[in-house]
Design goal:
Elements (H helix, E strand, L loop, with lengths): L1 E7 L7 H4 L7 H16 L4 E8 L5 E3 L4 E3 L8 E3 L13 H12 L7 E7 L4 H12 L5 E6 L18 H13 L3 H5 L3 H6 L5 H10 L7 E7 L6 E6 L1
Parallel strand pairs: 1-7, 2-6, 2-7
Antiparallel strand pairs: 1-9, 3-6, 4-5, 8-9
C-alpha cells in the first residue's frame, strides 16, 4: 500500500556539480525537494521506490546500489542509489541519477530503496497498472516520483513557446498539490508529449499506486526558471 509520495523535478541542473556557476538559481528548489523527501521518512515505509522518466532503453528496475553518472553532462561525478557494498552493472538513467543524488543529500537509510525507469511514452492504462503493481509489492510503500512539466513556457525553453504550456502546468500543479489522482490519470498523453512534459507517465504511475487510498497533498514549490515547469509536492 502506498503510504507517502514525494514529487520532485529531475533536471541535471539540480546537482550543483552539473550546474556549476548557475547552482544558486535552484537552491530553493533543492531545499523543497529535501523537505518532500522528509515526508517519506516520516511515513516509515518498508520500501522506497524511485520512479523516473526514461527512454525505452532505460525502462525497468534498478536495485539498491546502482550507480548514477553525470559524465554525459560534462562532470566526472557519480552517486549510488542508497547504500550497497557492490554496484550492479546497469547504470542509472539521468532522471534516476538525480533521484539518487537527492536521496544522498538526506543520507537516506530509512528503508531499502530500488528504482524504476518509466518510459515517457508509456500509455496511461499501463501506467495505472504499473502503479497498482508497485503499491502491492510491500505493506508500506513510499514513492519518490521524478518528472518535469512542460518544456515550452518561453521562446528560450527547450521546446520553444507553446501557449498551452502554462495552462497544462497549472493543471498539473493543482493535481499534485491536492493529491488528485483522477486529474493525474486524466492528463492527455498527446498533449503532454507535444509539450515535452517528461513527468506525465510517472505521475500516472503514482495515480495507479494511490488508488483506494486517502492522501492529502501539499505543493511545496512551483517555478519555471528555464521555461520548464518544475513542481515539488508531498503526499501523506
Amino acid at each position: 500500500m502506498l503510504v507517502a509520495a514525494a514529487l520532485c523535478p529531475c533536471p541535471p541542473l539540480l546537482v550543483p556539480e552539473v550546474a556549476a556557476g548557475a547552482a544558486p538559481e535552484l537552491d530553493a528548489l533543492r531545499a523543497a525537494c529535501l523537505d518532500a523527501i522528509g515526508v517519506l521518512a516520516a511515513a516509515r515505509p518498508d520500501r522506497l521506490v524511485v520512479l523516473g522518466p526514461t527512454d525505452e532503453a532505460g525502462r525497468g528496475g534498478y536495485p539498491q546500489g546502482a550507480i548514477g553518472s553525470f559524465r554525459g553532462f560534462g562532470v566526472d561525478f557519480e552517486v549510488p542509489l542508497g547504500a550497497a557494498e557492490t554496484a550492479p552493472d546497469r547504470e542509472l538513467p539521468p532522471s534516476l541519477s538525480v533521484g539518487a543524488w537527492l536521496l544522498s543529500r538526506t543520507d537516506w537509510d530509512d528503508a531499502p530503496v530500488e528504482a524504476l525507469g518509466v518510459p515517457r511514452s508509456l500509455p496511461r492504462d499501463r501506467c495505472l497498472e504499473l502503479g497498482r503493481e508497485t503499491a502491492a509489492a510491500a505493506p508500506r510503500i513510499a514513492l519518490l516520483v521524478l518528472g518535469d512539466g512542460s518544456a515550452c513556457r518561453t521562446v528560450k525553453a527547450p521546446g520553444y513557446f507553446d501557449e498551452r504550456a502554462e495552462g497544462f502546468d497549472a493543471e498539473v500543479a493543482r493535481a499534485l498539490g491536492n493529491a488528485d489522482i483522477a486529474a493525474l490519470a486524466a492528463l492527455g498523453e498527446e498533449r503532454a508529449a507535444d509539450l515535452q512534459a517528461s513527468g506525465r507517465a510517472c505521475w500516472q504511475v503514482l495515480a495507479g499506486a494511490a488508488e483506494g487510498t486517502d492522501h492529502s497533498g501539499r505543493l511545496l514549490r512551483e517555478e519555471a526558471p528555464y521555461g520548464v515547469g518544475y513542481f515539488v509536492a508531498a503526499w501523506s
